Structures are given as C-alpha cells and as structure tokens.
C-alpha cells in the first residue's frame, strides 16, 4: 500500500512543473503594436482635453471610438489567434480614429 501512495505522490510531484508552465503561457495572443498605438491615441485625447483643444462632447466621442477599437481587438483575440486580416481591420480603424482625433483637435473649437 505504501508503494502505491509513493508512486502516486511521485506522479503528482512530477506533473506540477508542467501544470505551472501551462498556466504561465498566455491564453490570448499578444498585440503589442496595437496596444501601444491605443495608448498613444488615449494620450492624445487626454492632452486635447487638458489643453482645451477638445470639448467634453468631442472627447466623449473620441473615447467611444477608442472603445470600438478595443472591442475589435478583444473579438479578434477571442479565438486565440489574431489573423492578418483582423490586424488589417484593426489598423484601418485605428487610422480612422487617429484622423478623427486630429480633425477634432484642430477644428478651432474650445472648451
């Protein structure tokens, strides 16, 4: 009986590092370029609010646009891989969002 307990214990101990490694690997794919760009655009929006270049209404609209990009990214990551086509769509939306931010910041409306 002791042999069985020892062998079970040995199997469990041997399996622990494999389980820890499996949990350490990320389940969702990394998208560092998309994440950095999102952060920069958020900073642009906040800077526009701080300087008065964006009205509160414009800032709210820009934040909603950023949320749309975030939803697109989350949806793309949901299946575990972000395809080239999904990256292209997200980049396209980020380009549009960037243009909107620039237009709103330079439209001479002030708070």
Name the overall outline.
Answer: elongated
| Gyration radius, rounded | 23 Å
How confident overall, as mean pLDDT? 85
Counting H and I runs of at least 4 residues, what is the number of helices? 4
Order of helices and strands: HHHH
Please tag this protein with its features.
mainly alpha, about 80% helix
Describe the structure.
It contains four helices and no strands. The protein is mainly α and 111 residues long. The chain has a domain at 30-105. The mean pLDDT is 85.
Give me the secondary-structure topology:
Elements: H1 2-24, H2 32-51, H3 56-77, H4 84-105
Helix pairs in contact: 2-3, 2-4, 3-4
Q: What is shown here, in short?
A:
This protein is an all-alpha fold. The chain has four helices and no strands.
């Amino acid at each position: 009986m002791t042999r069985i307990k020892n062998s079970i214990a040995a199997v469990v101990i041997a399996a622990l590092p494999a389980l820890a490694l499996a949990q350490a690997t990320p389940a969702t794919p990394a998208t560092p370029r998309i994440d950095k760009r999102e952060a920069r655009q958020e900073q642009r929006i906040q800077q526009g609010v701080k300087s008065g270049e964006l009205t509160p209404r414009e800032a709210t609209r820009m934040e909603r646009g950023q949320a749309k990009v975030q939803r697109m990214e989350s949806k793309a990551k949901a299946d575990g891989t972000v395809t080239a086509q999904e990256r292209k769509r997200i980049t396209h939306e980020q380009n549009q969002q960037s243009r909107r931010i620039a237009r709103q910041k330079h439209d001479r409306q002030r708070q």
